[in-house]
Amino acid sequence: MNNLVRPRNGAVIAGVCAALANRFGLSANIVRLIAVLSILLPGPQVIIYIILWVLIPKEA
Q: C-alpha angle with apex 11: 9 to 15, nearest 5 degrees?
């Protein structure tokens, strides 16, 4: 498995979904779809996304 870093290429908004997809060997589009669908449910998904945006380092 790869390290958890936000890629420079392939990032749509902040690269969080792409980073999670790379880390766990999934398609970035599947992770993005899950993220968008989860926003329809009540909960702190947007806050968690912003926290991950801050915590996951950008690729060097």
A: 120
